[in-house]
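User: Write out your own:

AI:
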Amino acid sequence: MNRLIKYRLLSLSGISLLFFLLGTMTAQSATYYVATTGSDSNPGTSTSPWRNPQKCAGSPMKAGDTCIVRSGTYTAPSGKNIVVYVSGSSAAGTSSLPITIKSEKPQGAVITIPSTTMGANVGFYVTRSYYVIEGFDITGGAISYNTVGFTGVSIQPTATGLTVRSNAFHHIGRTVCSNSPYSMSGIYNASNSGSVIEENRFYSIGRKRKGESGCSTDKFQHDHGIYLNGSSNATIRRNVFYDTNRGYSIQVYGGTVTNLKIYHNTFSGRSPTGLPVGQIILASTISTATIKNNTSSDAQTGMINAWALKGSGISVSYNLSDTLIKATSSIPGATFSNNTERTSPGFVNKSTNDFRLISSSAAINRGTASGVPVVPDGAPDISAYEYSQQSNTASPLTPTGVRVQ
């Protein structure tokens, strides 16, 4: 046989084998289901679903699998303080084959954070790597007790590469009057690597203020949309925050944070008490951070505050605020450039929390394309929403900007 022909046949055989192996790998990924009408003794199929989302964190789930939670309300079994606990015995995903736990319909599956006296009450508590938490309505936490906290998603130090996408975090701890030092937050991110928090909506988070409905408390600025306590390579993008002013929309405090990216987010609202003075607080040690293409509306003083900050390599650029960008005169280690201040963002209807952009918005085409996903028109907007892609018929729950897979 001609040596060249033989080589080509062998090459084609190798390619065929490669495609066969890839197809086999893809076929091995499984999809399981949870429904309020199911049973945990079921096999978890579409027709015989499980009952509790906790099953999504146990056997037979493995890397590449998906667990779909159908519409309904889910909470932890009686006496438990976590709805879904991805523990050390749970399977881990990989960067190419994550384990996905998602609501079948956007925000159709409601995760109710427990109200126990057991300390941390959590919707999703994740200790394993490469999970995706997507599309849930996460709310709850209703016990006034001085040693408890409430969190929607808690990302632990061992949870590398976690993605939290397209969820609604709201009314977490809103009926609580307490002096608990523990935070009531949408997401708590603790000293891990590679977390991506994108396209979520955070609102009405945190306990009652002093004097609110007769509440007496000496705790304030404790409750946050996102709380970063040390991390590396975390990305927070295309999220919307409003009524998250019983603390900060984003608090970066504790440990050491490196290579943080905060971009294309929309922040709105201030506390009637005058505190906090900003919507993002930078504290502790931060080495390299990029804050760009964000919109701030109605901050008390400015978008970014700093407290006891040891900062270096912090770049703040191409942001827009209808007040100021800096809520304090000094942000150690930070440089500021190409920001727009005292300019209205131009929202469709801020009074109804519709933060899409109107056609004359000053935020359109004013962002930087450097280091962010490419948008169709090549000119990113300074917003969680990209005007050229947003829906103009109904207010979307989460931003409709460029999806990064």
Remarks:
- DSSP finds one helix and 29 strands in the chain.
- Residues 2-13, 15-22 have pLDDT under 50 and may be disordered.
- Residues 3-28 form the longest helix (26 residues).
